[in-house]
Amino acid sequence: MGLKEEFEEHAEKVKTLPKAPSNDDMLILYGHYKQATVGPVNTSRPGMLDLRGKAKWDAWKAVEGKSQEEAMGDYITKVKQLLEAAGMAA
User: Fold this and answer.
1) For the whole model, what pTM was predicted?
2) Which residues form the ACB domain (predicted)?
């Protein structure tokens, strides 16, 4: 299985967690997912009142220097950690 296929598989697996990941974990996943699928940030930072949008944008910006392949690998690793913590097979 190639990296892209494994990435897509784990993007689906994360949806099967018995409870939603913490906000911090969700932001880590979001930043790596966007870097892996879109590449570097290509939008301006949301406004001051959009706290959720700013947090998501900041999470994406934080991984901006990673290649799309690195971001996929880190995303897969994080999903595996969350699955293991939930007692589910990665």
Assistant:
1) 0.93
2) 3-88
pLDDT tens-place string over residues 38-52: 999 999 999 999 999
pLDDT of residue 1: 83
Q: Residue 81 and residue 67: Cα distance in Å, rounded?
A: 21
Which architecture, in CATH terms, is 3-86?
Answer: Up-down Bundle (1.20)
CA distance 36 to 4: 9
- DSSP states of 11-40: HHHGGG-SSPPPHHHHHHHHHHHHHHHT-S
Residue 88 has pLDDT above 90, yes or no: no
